[in-house]
């Protein structure tokens, strides 16, 4: 079993507006979803690069020089339930849930180095579904 593709990489942003300006105005990406807190403040964005490839950024306070801005990587899969079943058989734990604001089906595990890996499946309830070709 292989993932369908690498869906997105998630990075931290110290200045979310500048990050959005660069990726949208310079690289011509488009915002397909804004993550908002209960007060309606945007704390993250999901950007369409092209050809079903996305970038995700979340506002993060500045941190020590030399530390990573990497947050997680995400693989799209065709059958999320089968993926979770097989990973459970290999000793990983996870639970399928819907994203709170983007409504995508997802679960998470850590690789042997502790890096967070998200697996998700788009369906008609997912915000990103209408952007897929």
Describe the structure.
The chain is α+β, with helices and mostly antiparallel strands and 133 residues long. The protein has a single domain, classed as 2,3-Dihydroxybiphenyl 1,2-Dioxygenase, domain 1, CATH 3.10.180. The protein contains two helices and eight strands. An eight-stranded mixed beta sheet has the order 2-3-4-1-5-8-7-6. The two termini are 23 Å apart.
Topology:
Elements lengths: L4 E9 L2 H11 L3 E7 L5 E9 L2 E7 L10 E7 L3 H10 L7 E2 L6 E6 L5 E6 L12
Q: Kindly provide the radius of gyration, computed on alpha-carbon positions and rounded to a whole number of angstroms.
A: 15 Å
Structural class: alpha+beta
Number of strands: 8
Q: Which topology does CATH recognise? A: 2,3-Dihydroxybiphenyl 1,2-Dioxygenase, domain 1
Provide the β-strand percentage band: 35-45%
CA distance, first residue to last residue: 23 Å
Count, helices: 2
What tags apply to this protein structure?
133 residues; alpha+beta; 2 helices; 16% helix
Concise description?
The chain has 133 residues and is α+β, with helices and mostly antiparallel strands. The protein contains two helices and eight strands; from the N terminus they run βαββββαβββ. The protein has one domain: 2,3-Dihydroxybiphenyl 1,2-Dioxygenase, domain 1 (Roll), CATH 3.10.180.10.
